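#struct-queue
[09:14] JT: dropping the first one here, sequence first, then the structure tokens:
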Amino acid sequence: NKDLSESTVRLTSIVLAQGLERAVKDNLLAINPAKGIERPKGRKKIVTPYTSSELKELLKALEKYRLFAFFRLLAYSGARRGEILALRWTDIDFEKGTLSISKNRTRIGSKVIEQDSTKGGDGKRTIQLDSETLLIIKDHREKQKVERGEENIVRFGQDSGYIFTQEGSELPLEPSVPYQLFKRVTKRLGLRSESLHSIRHLHATELLNS
């Protein structure tokens, strides 16, 4: 249905496919009829990326918040919001300066699900991070330890917990929280209303320009 947004169609198809797969496991169906069927196309939303100067202004305003590292990754890695939400400390190699992405966390109705991220199910992809982003993530980790009251410093790469968690907790961050902060800060700055995806679009545009 072209009246439905692309994201709505995608999430609906995911729920349907998972429900049918559950029915197969419970021996209610012999096969999953959704497998191999091309997903219908929804209505694409036109995204207008922020300019480099607008992004700089936005990130400057976000520096004081505990989720600053989240937005830095969103802007400088090209990863999706759900992919960043699914990241664990074991996904970062600080020596090589790389980030491995394989999962995506998103809310569908009343449930938050985590699933394979890459389209087509082709597995993990690795992203090279710049030195400043790596420093910001390290700083985020130290603040996370203080926030939780951790006495023993855990070496990077040995903590299997989520990078972005609920305040004072090891539980993963609620998917809507970054968007709510993003909307609040952009409104205060007088920036036009856009989706979080607009930050990722700017990353792709900058790569093309380079």
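[09:21] JT: and here's the second one, same format:
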Amino acid sequence: MTRSIIRHYIGNRDDLVEALVQRNLDQAAAELKAQYQGLSPQDSVALSLETMFTERPSIAEQDRVVLEVMMTAEGRYPVAKKRLKQAFSDLVASFAADLNRAHPGANRAHCEQVAYAVICMSEMNEAFMWLGLPPRHNTSARAVAEELIAALG
């Protein structure tokens, strides 16, 4: 495809990145909604852990590269970054709500802290998986995530 065709239908590079991010976010949201619909809070937390600490990467390598370039490009792609930031905030809030429903006696703020920590740990763990680290590191990260969640009560 030529640049002129892309610019005609999508716009400049920033518009292309924003469209790509929005498409991926919409697609991921629809998939997550379908997977989690009707699950109990405990099953929802279990599925989240299984998804976050799987031994295979959750996104394709080319998508991860695009995200990493975009996230580290200072001053570039402000709209796409805003959408990603909102999607991350929504993910943390949703996981925190699931944790709070699964552990009704837990403090809501503590559930939010645990949700944030577990998601960050899973993201960094996946980033290191691209280096080819042994699966035992993934198993260890998941075990620590489970300990954090169990500490909620």
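[09:30] RK: nice, looked through the second one.
[09:31] RK: The first helix runs from residue 3 to 9.
[09:31] JT: good to know. DSSP finds seven helices and no strands in the chain.
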